[in-house]
Design goal:
globular, alpha/beta, Rossmann fold
Amino acid sequence: MSETRQSYAAALVDALHDGLRTDPRVSIIGGYVLGLGPQRTLTDRLKQDFPDRVFDPPTSEAGNAAVGVGAAMAGMRPFVDLGTGSFSYLAWSQITNEAAVAHYMTNGRLSAPVTFHLLHGVRGGGAAQHSQSPHAMLWNAPGLEIAAPSTAADVYGLIRTALASPNPTLVVSHAKLLGMETAVPERKSPIPFGRADIKRRGRDATVVATSLMVHYCLAAAEALSKEGIEVEVVDPRTLVPLDEKTILDSVSRTGRLVVVDECPLRGGIASEIAATVAERGFRYLKAPIVRVTRPDVPVPYSLPLENFITPDPEKIAAAVRCVLTAR
């Protein structure tokens, strides 16, 4: 099958367009799906082709999320954009205490198949209030599916699956991914949740990451290959459900694990994946697990300080070297 290249943002819009075209229950609530950067005009065709199902309400994260939850309970499939990830805190109750538990609280009589979308991550001068990645916290909300795509093909496939899912879903897109172009197949298709993708094969160590960090891990793996070190890069693609089997199978082959994530260390994604492997795959490990994350501090406005606390290919490569020499 032939491949071409497409930006993450363009593939995301394709997924929404195809969702609107194929399912009359799909609607979009929120006009800044791609933020305020140069990709924002890509959503214009959604408004042009589906003016009655693309809504740009006043900024009210709690209100927009509540409308989405109510519409989902009534049988619709809304896609609610919450903007920058830090703003999702304003809709915390609607996400965790309404959408995520609706099916359980009504004994299956109601569900809330709403898709929430947010832009997360350090983006260059966003400071503490525009750089957060709250999906690690939302991993602790039972009933909520979570997808963290890293490529154009993945964001298309995972959003198509989210729009068709009977469950409430959170899709997180890193702000730095929007303009990044990656290979896509001639015919993009939905991607099942809970199916990890091995982005690079290797024998010496397993590195697990999602979202933007996948690309940083691939850059680190490329640099390490020049030293004769072959790293396997595993992208879970979804956190809920998590493809534990693929991760454990990889660790069983390499014997060493580095987990990379931009969320803070304490209670973060890297910590949970590391705990899972330690609990279920300890017999495979030849060395202690290493985590590469942000420290437990707010993101500074200063770019040098921001870079200092954020994982990058050099820090990831250093962690791999560390795990290879540990006993």
